[in-house]
């Protein structure tokens, strides 16, 4: 049996189970070499060093792909790699898909979806960095793809694999802080004009010479053609809605993870942009306030979640004034879940909970609820690799969960982008009050970049 056929069949047999089957590479039963063949799409900078250092270097690295050869040079040198290098992931898959078991996708947001789906279509397991996709239709399509292709998936919001978020979820489920109806999440960025965000004077950006080693057309991928500018690549693309999703897209999948998991939040019925700083067309603001309205579910009542980015006047906005906490930035926490008995604070990447009032925190530490959620050893990449090998359960941030969290984020981004109120029909997947904005629920793509239409 060929390697690709064997792996696809092995996973497909028990894909509906939470624990996936063991397999040996190349033939049934255990083998002397049970290492996976892994490829990287996006091979430059720290974003590629992260999976390399956190588990993937212990497997067989068989191919690397990036549109910017020069930017990858340092990693390629340090890793002493002699494996094939491609500019175009489509060419890599066409030539090597039978030799690739799994792929890590670390491209800018706008190319997550085509790279991910191209892998899944070939039966390749995928780890895709957050946010999972650039629009809601793409997120929902990847859920269909996971069910159809039966591969192991993981979205890269690292905190979801940590002990801290599990402690928070278990504490909430045990009723430690009571019933929660209000959540506050925040981030102090973006720093416009800093290392990761541009501060353009005009739009569109003026043309600049394309750097040697960069395939600019491939970097654009599905997005409409435009001239190269250094603010787009290599580090500041999140500034522009065509490519990134601002602070909410960059950090929301981390910071909103705890309340979404703990409160079992489905996509909201309403999202409001309460305020945003002025910005040029297509450019994120230097600050905003977004309010989500989540409907009641099960025994839980409705929940309001406020997101803040940029500098805020905490004397006026994000007031809590309960349990000794003044506002959403109390004690520097990035997230506060306010309950009837107390409140729980978390960091930007979830992390260990802080419970207020202090006496409640001490009681929780002395008598914590039973650990009902299995712990993850070694972080999200090893969680994903073990699942592929059948040595552990399905990753917690698989695409069913990751797509839901991403959809929540994307609805906030749309409200922010157009400074508006979004009334969302989740069942139909449509904006009902501003139907013209449905063009951004499923964005147009350039010819040759159509993926997922048959799903």
Short key terms for the protein model shown above:
455 residues; alpha/beta; Rossmann fold; Dihydrodipicolinate Reductase, domain 2; 2 domains; 9-stranded mixed sheet; 6-stranded parallel sheet; 13 helices; 17 strands; 29% helix; 19% strand; disordered N terminus
Q: Can you tell me about this structure?
A:
Helix 5 packs parallel to helix 6, helix 6 packs antiparallel against helix 13 and helix 9 packs antiparallel against helix 13. The protein has a nine-stranded mixed sheet. With 455 residues, it is of the alpha/beta class. It has two domains: 177 residues, Rossmann fold (3-Layer(aba) Sandwich); 246 residues, Dihydrodipicolinate Reductase, domain 2, CATH 3.30.360.10. It starts with a helix and ends in a 24-residue tail after the last strand. 29% of the residues lie in helices and 19% in strands. The protein contains 13 helices and 17 strands. The longest helix is centred in the last third of the chain and has 19 residues.
The CATH topology of the largest domain turns out to be Dihydrodipicolinate Reductase, domain 2
| Topology order in helix (H) and strand (E) letters | HEHEHEHEHEHEHEHHHEEEEEEEEHHHEE
**Which class do the helix and strand fractions yield?**
alpha/beta
- The pLDDT mean sits at 93
State the CATH class of the largest domain: Alpha Beta
- Count up the helices: 13
Low-confidence stretches: 1-32
Question: In order across it, which strands form the biggest sheet?
Answer: 15-14-13-7-10-9-8-16-17
Percent helix, as a range, is 25-40%
Shape from CA axes?
A: globular
Count of the domains: 2
Largest sheet: 9 strands, mixed
Strand content: 15-25%
- The CATH architecture designation of the largest domain is 2-Layer Sandwich
Total number of strands: 17
